[in-house]
Amino acid sequence: MVNSSAGVSRREIGLVTWLIAVYVVAAVATVGVLVALTVLAPAQATNEAWGHAVVVAVFAALLHMRWRAAKRGNARARTATGVIAAVLVVVNIVEAAVPGFFPPWMRVEMLAMAALMVAVALLILGRRR
């Protein structure tokens, strides 16, 4: 289990699991919103928004798989989860900062996703000595 060698508590494991689950649900929900917006308000479902949403969904699946392996005791998967989370923070903040590139609702989504990943990265990588 992850907490045996890294000093991570069961509470922290549960919190990371919950944060990643929220990230996965939000990624899937974003694709769902884009499907609806494509029909109802196409100007809000830009090609850039679709591209971002698909990439986020792929990383959500990857993040979930790596964390599952980490919970089984794979130290490399634990590190990979933290690194992926940290990269997602940077990417989401940078993309949200680009003026006019994404619809305003997606910029809010990006910042929320970045906040989730800050928490995951700190919980996982903050324990590394």
Automatic annotation (TrEMBL):
Keywords: Membrane, Transmembrane, Transmembrane helix. The chain crosses the membrane at residues 12-37, 49-67, 79-102, 108-126. This is Uncharacterized protein. It comes from Pseudonocardia oroxyli.
